[in-house]
Amino acid sequence: MGGNSPCASCKLLRRRCAKDCIFAPYFPSDDPHKFAIVHKVFGASNISKMLQELQVHQRADAVSSLVYEANARVRDPVYGCVGAISYLQNQVSQLQMQLAVAQAEILCIQMQQQDEPNNYSNINPLLVEADDKSFLFQNNNYNHLMPQYLNFTSSNNDSFSNSNNVIYESLKKESYFGHDMVS
Amino acid sequence: MNSSRCAACRHLRRRCPSDCIFSPYFPSHDSKRFRCVHKIYGASNVAKMLQELPADRRAEAADSLYYEAYCRLKDPVYGCVGTITILCQQIHNAQCQLATTQAEIASLSAHSGLQNQYPATPTFNLIDQYDVASANWSDFNLQ
């Protein structure tokens, strides 16, 4: 269709927008900021290469995640998305602790109910030691989310990448891809 | 002097100057590290990003760029955003479980008349959705 306005990418790159432009479906001309930010962080040719290596039905999600990462990087030039991961990891840890305390409290109440005549009033559930909390979590194993993969050294060994590989692979097994994050 | 070139200059097949922006963060013995970031961001973008930071923040920035590039190579569709999704889901599940557990505590306590014996369990704070760059979560829909 002759006369179509160029997509945001071709406008920014000042080139003719071909009919089969790889960017056009994902970077409409009415949102120039979207392409500008991914171009700033990744570069147009890298984006193009990444999209070409994906199947067509995967490209929209890939663009969304690249835009997200680019926004995070612009906002936090030091940590980018890793800052978000670190924050969420802390939240998971806090919830783990709260859950452990709550579940220990249930145990104490149940113990007290079973041994009603005896005086256990000196038991404080908040001080109950639970060295092995694995029985509390049952199917919810958060151990693989511990921030080992965030302990990357500044430059000089592969241990970071090796440990990250293990943790990342285990994360992939629990992929919730496709679920809308907005509840 | 070839052996003293950093991984970036070796990959780019150029001389490694004494003030090379890459050399503190991409040592020659770890070529994979630079290859990852170069494939995703490109050398010139990485150099620009590092140059815009104070020197004492560049090591962390290089590490996070490597991490994100690594995640993107492993998962070309979602990259490290997939990890964020999983963590959000884990948080949501844990919040639900905590709510259930605390309701059970309240019920048990009320049933056995123990509410005066046990101090009230601190209620968990609803953890706000992480708001990166003030972006709405609705702006990012994985479906």
Automatic annotation (TrEMBL), chain A:
Indicate the segments annotated as coiled coil, or none if absent: none
Q: Name one Pfam family in it.
A: LOB
Segments forming domain LOB: 5-106
**Alphabetical list of InterPro entries matching this protein:** LOB (IPR004883)
Q: Which domain of life is it from?
A: Eukaryota
Regarding protein family, the annotation reads: Belongs to the LOB domain-containing protein family.
Q: Which PANTHER family match?
A: LOB DOMAIN-CONTAINING PROTEIN 12-LIKE, LOB DOMAIN-CONTAINING PROTEIN 4-RELATED
The protein, known as? LOB domain-containing protein
UniProtKB/TrEMBL annotation, chain B:
Tell me which domain of life the UniProt entry assigns to the organism this sequence originates from: Eukaryota
The LOB domain extends over: 4-105
Q: Which InterPro entries match?
A: LOB (IPR004883)
Q: Which PANTHER family match?
A: LOB DOMAIN-CONTAINING PROTEIN 23-RELATED (PTHR31301:SF120), LOB DOMAIN-CONTAINING PROTEIN 4-RELATED (PTHR31301)
UniProt lists the family membership as follows: Belongs to the LOB domain-containing protein family.
Query: Can you say what this protein is called?
Result: LOB domain-containing protein
**Source species:** Dorcoceras hygrometricum
